[in-house]
Design a protein that fits this description.
Glycosyltransferase, 1% strand, single chain
C-alpha cells in the first residue's frame, strides 16, 4: 500500500504554494459536478417536446439554458442542448433578430452566445452575423450624437430607452461573435456604460454622477436616462443621484473587461472598489433579493474575467469566490435539482430561469 501512496504524496508535495492556493480557491469538483448533474436532470424533465423552456416569453430562456449547459460541460450534440438550439433557430427573423414578443435585444444576444457555443464547423455563422447586424441596428437607433446620454446604449428593442443590462448583454454577444475589441459598436457601448457608472469626471459628466452618495460611487446604475429625467424615479437618492446596484455593477465591469479595458483604467478600479465595499452573496446589493440569480450570473462572469482566484474586500477579508458561490448555491438547490427565487421580480419565481442562471454561474467554478 505504501509504495502506491508515495507517488501521490510526492506529487502533492511538488505543488508550488501558488498552485496549492489556486487549487484551494475551487470547490470540490465532484460535489460541483453532482450539483450540475442534478440541475441537468431537472432541466431535462422540464424541457417541452419542442425543445423549449418558458416559450411563452420567447426563445430567450431556452437560449440561456442551452448556453449554460454547454458552458457547464455538455457537448453541443447533447440531446437536450440540440433540441433547445433547434427551437431557438425557429425564431430567427428576416431582420436578423432572434425573438418573438418583446425582449428583442436580450433574446437575440442570448441566441448569439448559444449559437456560438454550439457552432461546430461554422454551422451558425450566417445566423450569428445577421443577429449581430440586428443588434447594431438597435444601438444605432439611439442616435449618433455622442453627447446624448442614450448614445451607444441598447434597450429592449430599437428606439427604446437603453439600460446597463441590455447593453451588457449586447457587448457580451458581440465579443462572443468574434467582434474586435475596438469594433466601433463595442466602443460606443462602453461609452454608454461609462455614463451609467457613478464616476464623475472624464467619462461621465452627467449631473447624477456628481450627486452620487459616497456609498454609490464607482457602482453602476440600471437606467441612467430614465433616472436622469424622472425626478420621482425610485432609483434616485435624496441628493438627486442614482443608486448603484450589484447586478448592474458586475454587468458593467464584465463588459469593460470583456472589451479589453485594463485593470488600471479608472472605471475598472472604481467598479472594483465599489465591489470591495459591497461584496456579498446573500443579496443583490441595492435590490435585496430581487434579481438575485441574475446577480449570481453577472458576479461569476465578472469575477472570472477579473482573474483573481481570491478576492479581497474592503475589510481585508479573503474570499475564494468560486467556493463561496458554490456553497451558497448548493445551499439553495432543491431536492429535484432546481433553484428558484422567493422574490418574484424579473420572473425569478420561475425555477427554469433561476436554474439556468445557477448552472451558468457554477460553470465558472469548474476547473478548466
Amino acid at each position: 500500500m505504501l509504495r502506491f501512496a508515495v507517488p501521490a504524496l510526492v506529487a502533492a508535495l511538488a505543488l508550488t504554494p501558488a498552485a496549492r492556493a489556486a487549487d484551494d480557491a475551487y470547490p470540490d469538483q465532484k460535489e460541483l459536478q453532482a450539483s450540475l448533474d442534478k440541475a441537468y436532470e431537472y432541466l431535462k424533465s422540464k424541457q417541452a417536446a419542442d425543445g423549449s423552456w418558458l416559450p411563452r416569453i420567447g426563445p430567450g430562456v431556452t437560449a440561456l439554458t442551452a448556453a449554460a449547459l454547454v458552458k457547464a460541460g455538455k457537448p453541443a450534440d447533447d440531446p437536450v442542448v440540440a433540441k433547445a438550439i433547434e427551437f431557438v433557430t425557429k425564431f430567427a427573423k428576416k431582420d436578423g433578430g432572434v425573438y418573438d414578443r418583446g425582449f428583442e435585444t436580450y433574446t437575440t444576444a442570448l441566441a448569439i452566445v448559444a449559437f456560438k457555443e454550439c457552432n461546430t464547423g461554422g454551422k451558425y455563422d450566417k445566423v450569428i452575423d445577421a443577429a449581430v447586424k440586428y443588434l447594431k441596428g438597435v444601438q444605432e437607433s439611439n442616435g449618433s450624437d455622442d453627447k446624448e446620454l442614450k448614445f451607444g446604449g441598447a434597450g429592449y428593442n430599437a428606439n427604446s430607452r437603453p439600460d446597463t443590462s441590455n447593453t451588457g448583454f449586447f457587448v457580451e454577444a458581440l465579443i462572443a461573435s468574434g467582434a474586435a475589441k475596438d469594433d466601433p459598436a463595442v466602443k460606443k457601448a462602453l461609452a454608454f456604460l461609462s455614463k451609467a457608472q457613478n464616476l464623475p469626471g472624464e467619462y461621465n459628466t452627467q449631473p447624477f454622477a456628481k450627486k452620487a452618495a459616497d456609498d454609490d460611487k464607482g457602482g453602476f446604475v440600471y437606467e441612467p436616462v430614465a433616472g436622469e429625467v424622472d425626478e420621482k424615479s425610485p432609483k434616485r437618492s435624496a441628493a438627486g443621484g442614482l443608486r448603484s446596484e450589484g447586478g448592474m455593477t458586475y454587468a458593467g465591469l464584465k463588459s469593460f473587461l470583456y472589451a479589453g479595458v485594463g485593470k488600471d483604467d479608472p472605471r475598472v478600479k472604481a467598479a472594483v472598489k465599489w465591489i470591495q465595499n459591497h461584496y456579498t452573496l446573500t443579496e443583490n446589493p441595492g435590490m435585496g433579493q430581487a434579481g438575485l440569480f441574475y446577480y449570481y450570473h453577472t458576479f461569476s462572469k465578472a469575477m472570472d474575467a477579473l482573474g483573481d482566484d481570491v478576492f479581497t474586500d474592503a475589510k481585508g477579508a479573503k474570499h475564494p469566490w468560486r467556493k463561496e458561490l458554490f456553497d451558497t448555491l448548493k445551499g439553495k438547490q432543491a431536492a429535484d435539482g432546481s433553484w428558484v427565487n422567493t422574490d418574484k421580480n424579473f420572473m425569478e419565481n420561475a425555477p427554469e430561469l433561476c436554474t439556468s442562471f445557477a448552472v451558468l454561474s457554477l460553470s465558472y467554478a469548474r476547473k478548466k
